[in-house]
């Protein structure tokens, strides 16, 4: 079946698809900021340019669109009826790239969290998803461990002790 749009119309339509600052991203960022978390966005120095980078917690968050990242079983992920092979290949490559970026980030010591667009889209799921996201982030905070000294180790000295005297030498 032929495309119902002219090449110029199709080009304008595809160019309008945003890759950054999408509505789901803005919802997540606004929520995290309101909870007191500070972050950077789209850090190009990290694999995959994560949507949100929380350096303090060594955590990155990706907000993935269900269609573009192949969310199986989701109502928002349905392959177009035309050019199916192209779309199947494109989405498979996106999934492979996402996996490779996640592996690279984990190997570098980052915690990777992925949030699906459908979990943010409806108000019913949004609150629960955002709350779980917040707790998943703050649980990763590294707390300093206290030095423990036992009573027996506190009295050990390198040399035998000698009593002090008030005599001047």
Structural domains: how many: 1
The CATH class name reads Alpha Beta
Task: Work out the helicity level.
Answer: 40-55%
In spatial order, strands of the major sheet run 1-2-3-4
Secondary-structure-based class equals: alpha+beta
Kindly report the oligomeric state of this protein. single chain
- Please outline the major beta sheet: 4 strands, mixed
Distance between the termini: 107 Å
Tally of DSSP β-strands: 4
Determine the CATH superfamily: VSR Endonuclease
Which shape, going by the Cα principal axes?
elongated
Please mark out the parts with pLDDT under 50 across 5 or more consecutive residues, or reply none: none
> What name is given to the CATH topology?
Endonuclease, Chain A
What does this structure look like?
With 169 residues, this protein is of the alpha+beta class. It has one domain (17-139): VSR Endonuclease (Endonuclease, Chain A), CATH 3.40.960.10. It has helices at residues 7-15, 23-34, 84-107, 117-121, 123-138, 151-154, and strands at residues 40-41, 52-54, 59-64, 111-116. It has a 4-stranded mixed sheet with strand order 1-2-3-4, sandwiched between helices. Strand 2 and strand 3 (59-64) form a beta hairpin. It is elongated. The N and C termini lie far apart (107 Å). The mean pLDDT is 85.
Descriptive tags:
169 residues, alpha+beta, Endonuclease, Chain A, 6 helices, 10% strand, elongated, EC 3.1.-.-, Restrct_endonuc-II-like, DNA_mismatch_endonuc_vsr, DNA damage
